[in-house]
């Protein structure tokens, strides 16, 4: 993967995962193994231009295991909260979470509804995430502020704006849902000036008070 490339996320059903330790329950559940690879460019004083660029990258891989009910990951407000919690534990920066959150929820929804999974009580999922970063988070260092919903009164006071092509461009998207924001439509602006679909932002702030673009923190 090129260091300057985008974040990458892959989720797939992995029957090779050991689920023998999972306690049986009356409800179906996901057994999720996360593998997050943080990539950064090495400080290299060597001026040898023939050295391959990939050799100047170093990485740290963090892994984690989670269990969650199958009805709590497909797209809804509860799934946003659950996946955001997992990504926070895996130290994925909040401004990188929206795209990854949608991919995981979409995949969970798809495999939970596959006919061949209907009689399975445990669905094993492996999630691999690759993130180019400027620095590595130390072992005991927190990557984000505490996940907490925004204050409802603060949410209600957020400015409503009209999308103008001259200001945002014709291809401007809401980074929460990753869908285009239509020129002339109404949107909601954070105090940091970042703009999102109103419903998307309210759902996000109901889980996390941090702007998903710049980490501006609203009062809780």
Automatic annotation (TrEMBL):
Residue ranges of domain RING-type in the record: 174-215
Alphabetical list of SMART domains matching this protein: RING
The reaction(s) this protein catalyses: S-ubiquitinyl-[E2 ubiquitin-conjugating enzyme]-L-cysteine + [acceptor protein]-L-lysine = [E2 ubiquitin-conjugating enzyme]-L-cysteine + N(6)-ubiquitinyl-[acceptor protein]-L-lysine
Broadest EC class assigned to this enzyme: transferase
UniProt-listed Enzyme Commission number(s): 2.3.2.27
Keyword set, alphabetical order: Metal-binding, Zinc, Zinc-finger
GO molecular function: ubiquitin protein ligase activity; zinc ion binding
GO cellular component terms given for this protein: cytoplasm
Pfam family, one: zf-RING_2
Family matches, as PANTHER family: E3 UBIQUITIN-PROTEIN LIGASE PRAJA (PTHR15710), RING_U-BOX SUPERFAMILY PROTEIN (PTHR15710:SF184)
Protein name: RING-type E3 ubiquitin transferase
């Amino acid at each position: 993967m090129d260091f300057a490339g985008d974040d990458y996320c892959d989720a797939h059903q992995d029957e090779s995962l050991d689920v023998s330790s999972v306690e049986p329950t009356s409800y179906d559940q996901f057994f999720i193994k996360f593998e997050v690879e943080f990539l950064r460019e090495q400080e290299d004083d060597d001026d040898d231009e023939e050295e391959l660029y990939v050799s100047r990258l170093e990485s740290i891989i963090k892994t984690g295991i989670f269990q969650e009910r199958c009805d709590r990951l497909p797209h809804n407000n509860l799934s946003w909260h659950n996946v955001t919690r997992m990504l926070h534990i895996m130290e994925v920066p909040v401004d990188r979470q929206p795209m990854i959150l949608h991919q995981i929820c979409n995949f969970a929804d798809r495999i939970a509804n596959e006919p061949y999974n209907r009689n399975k009580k445990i669905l094993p999922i492996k999630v691999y995430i690759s993130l180019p970063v400027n620095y590595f988070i130390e072992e005991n260092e927190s990557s984000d502020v505490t996940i907490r919903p925004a204050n409802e009164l603060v949410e209600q006071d957020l400015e409503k704006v009209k999308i103008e092509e001259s200001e945002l461009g014709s291809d401007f998207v809401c980074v929460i849902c990753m869908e285009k924001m239509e020129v002339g439509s109404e949107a909601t602006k954070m105090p940091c000036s970042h703009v999102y679909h109103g419903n998307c932002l309210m759902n996000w702030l109901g889980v996390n008070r941090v702007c998903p673009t710049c980490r501006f923190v609203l009062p809780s």
